[in-house]
Amino acid sequence: PTDSTRATLRVTGVNQTNVITGNCAFCDGLTLKSVQIDGNRGNLGWVSPSVNGNSLIEMGGTTRAQLTNLVFFFGADTRGWGCFHAIEGTNFNDGNGPYCDSMKIQNSQFGPCGFAPSPGQPQERSRRWGKRDSTPTPAYRWADGISHACKNSVVTGNTITDATDGGIVIFGAPNSKVYGNTIIAATRQLMGGINAVDWGPFNGNYSGVQVYNNNIISQGAMIKIGIALGPLSWGSYDNPSYRNYGGTFQNNILSSGPNGYFAFGVTAAALNNTVVTGNSFSGANFGGVPTSVCTSYTPPSPGPLYWDPTTTSGLTLQNGFNGSTFLVFLICDGPGPVTISGYSG
Fold first, then answer.
1. For 172-202, what is each residue's pLDDT tens digit?
2. How much helix, strand and coil, in percent to the nearest 5, is found in the chain?
3. Residues in Cβ contact with 149 at an 8 Å cutoff, skipping those fewer than 6 apart
4. Using CA atoms in the order 80, 86, 91, 94, what is the torsion angle rounded to 10 degrees?
5. DSSP 3-state assignment of 330?
6. Which phi and psi (to 5°) does residue 117 adopt?
7. Is the peptide bond preceding residue 201 cis, with omega within 30 degrees of 0?
8. Given this model, what pLDDT does residue 325 score?
9. Which of 80, 137, 256, 265 lies in the 20 to 30 Å Cα band around 317?
10. Which pLDDT value is given to residue 195?
11. Spatial contact of 98 and 91, defined as CB atoms under 8 Å apart
12. Residue 243 and residue 173: Cα distance in Å, rounded?
């Protein structure tokens, strides 16, 4: 079934954060299909990562060819750091990287996920394999929609509504395709629409990743970065050893509703050998202001396309990119007036 007659899986335990643990060893071909998910956060509250670090759904791991299809989150969101996590699995040091392979995440609805960040307290990601900062403070209770770290995989046809950390976060996942998804910030502020900022667990390798024909919509709330590329788009630790590389990001559409806007459209910093072309901003608004946590670096003015020529090389960029040195920690921007309405560049 595809309607409300689908089976409902609901979190009920005091410290429980997940309803599906599908990242069991060698659970190849596992299928999660036609279910409704209730994270029950409204009744049970948030759970600190120091108590339970799982997402609401955990898939992947040391597995191949898993499928998630027609899953529906119906309004009671995750108690942990994410709604759906495709984890990378064990690295057997055979030259192929982490094990998880050939996953499909499709035709599902995710969200809401997490509490929106307060204007002056955005997050820098933890550097331990790109997972989240585990500091259990109220400001850190946001969550991803889909966190994807499984190589040779497909993420398509999904709708993510009111995630608060990243809508879709790609953790390397070489040779994966992410296309035809819709990410909406309807009522909750979102830090990143599609993120490719994490160096781990694939040591910055985004080779063969294709991200195209996705819709990212700031419908009624701010999205800080529509498509964030490279570690310095998100953080401020500038180490030349941490440079992401590879991937194609093209023909994605960013747009806004009457009360929504982006701080930045596409940003590229600490990034090599990546293609960014054909992305559209004609229906997007841009605005926001630096907050009190923008202490070491001041972000540029809100706008659709920024790259840092001092921390990037080998990029193929669409027309309209503005070069900006010291392009770091752009999620420190917070809500503010709209200064650009539409861009055809």
1. 999 999 999 999 999 999 999 999 999 999 9
2. 5, 40, 55
3. 60, 86, 87, 88, 98, 100, 170, 171, 172, 173, 201, 202
4. -170
5. helix
6. -65, 145
7. yes
8. 87
9. 256
10. 98
11. yes
12. 15
Distance of CA 3 to the CA centre of its chain: 27
- Strand pairing class (333-343; 303-307): unpaired
Residues forming beta bridges with residue 31, ordered by sequence position? 67
Pair of tokens at residue 320: 């309209």
**Rounded to an integer, what distance in angstroms lies between the CA atom of residue 150 and that of residue 173?**
5
pTM of the full predicted structure? Answer: 0.94
- 74: which 2 tokens? 């119906």
Task: List, for residues 290-325, the tens digit of each pLDDT value.
Answer: 998 888 788 999 999 999 999 999 999 999 999 998
And the tokens for 31?
């299928």
Residue type, 171: F
Owner of token pair 């497909």: 154
The rounded distance, in Å, linking the Cα atoms of 105 and 25 is 19
- For the record, the structure tokens of 308 come out as 């840092």
pLDDT at 37: 94
Strands 271-272 and 210-212: unpaired
CA dist., res. 146 & res. 105, Å (int): 9
Nearest to 208 by CA among 130, 97, 86: 97
**Which of 232, 229, 288 lies closest to 256 in space, CA to CA?**
288
Question: What's the pLDDT at 77?
Answer: 84
Structural tokens at position 126: 């933890």
With beta carbons less than 8 A apart as the criterion, state whether 65 and 28 touch.
yes
Q: What is the dihedral of CA 141, 176, 286, 272, to 10 degrees?
A: 100
Distance CA 169, CA 65 (A): 20
Spatial distance between the Cα atoms of 80 and 100, rounded to a whole number of angstroms: 22
pLDDT given at position 344: 80
Q: Which residue has the tokens 């800080």?
A: 224
Structure tokens of 133?
């900062």
How far is it, in rounded angstroms, from Cα 102 to Cα 67? Answer: 9
Q: Are 143 and 81 in contact (CB under 8 A)?
A: yes
- What pLDDT score was predicted for residue 343? 85
Say which amino acid occupies 14.
V
| Residues near 195 by beta carbon (within 8 Å), at least 6 away in sequence | 166, 167, 168, 169, 170, 225, 227, 228, 234
Below-50 pLDDT ranges, the chain: 119-137
